[in-house]
User: Fold this.
Amino acid sequence: MKLLVTGGAGYVGSVNAAHLVEAGHEVVVLDDLSTGHADAVPEGARFVEGELSEAAGPLLAEGFDGVLHFAARSLVGESVEKPELYWDNNVVRTFRLLEAMREHGTPRLVFSSTAAVYGEPEQVPIPEDAPTRPTNPYGASKLAIDTMITSYATAYGLAAVSLRYFNVAGAHGRFGERHAVETHLIPIVLQVAAGTRESVAIYGDDWDTPDGTCLRDYIHVDDLADAHLLALQKAEPGRHGIYNLGSGRGFSVLEVVEACRTVTGHPIPARVAPRRAGDPAVLIASSGRATTELGWNPTRTALETMVGDAWRFAQDRLPV
Ligand code: UFG
Assistant:
């Protein structure tokens, strides 16, 4: 297929673009490099540097079989402080993308949605039909887009899939996570192991969980990419499929730190800090729908596998 990958110079986008190229698809990456890196675009993909709502239309006029839409702002804290960035970058620009797809008859869309659409869960594991009550503008912006996509599938026959990621981890060879502002647990802990950070702060050890620290459902970015390839194949005209992507089990913050100690051999000093505003105690996916309907089975579910791949990626990037 000829595929447009928006945000294909970012973490999840670049790993997916690499998998798509490896699977033999013709890939065009569109990224404005606001948070992505030009050298993260895989060999074999064409790279267009440009702003989504301006560049997507002229590109799609060439004729594409589908779009994988990763381009977005994705920091929860930033979304609370500067919500306008999220309504503009995520919602307004995705609306322009959908309009460009409609104008040029692009038949398929796979969209990066998030567990953040559910907010504080009432039940865990979280099924796709759980109430969607996002607790921050980031989650709200992704939920607004999911709603928009459903309406385009119904009205215009778009074949659409939203994949709601839980906590993405790991790396794919030279493609991995390198944010200017790092807020995610595993890369922060690995910075301590790499010597660029002194210690890790554990945001609360008095949660109602077995060891008092928050539980999250970590999913390897390669397993995520497998789901995107399946979603492309299984997308049906006029239907918007929504799927949670997680491994179905929770790891605590302390378990993550311990796995990082095992993988890196570094003692990784940790200190307890106050709870971070907006963190739910437990986020675990029910991914049964993706297994049943897409035939997806995550296989890199061991914490050591995810941390090990992220560590190899981080080490390759350290100055020698
Ligand atoms: N944590 C720490 N110390 C840190 C960083 C994180 O203790 O320095 C804890 C957090 O409190 C949380 C866990 O580690 O309990 C994981 O935190 P991350 O920031 O890595 O990930 P989140 O669970 O906050 O974020 C994920 C997705 C977001 C999504 C959010 C929904 O990465 O995209 O879930 O709540 F919006």
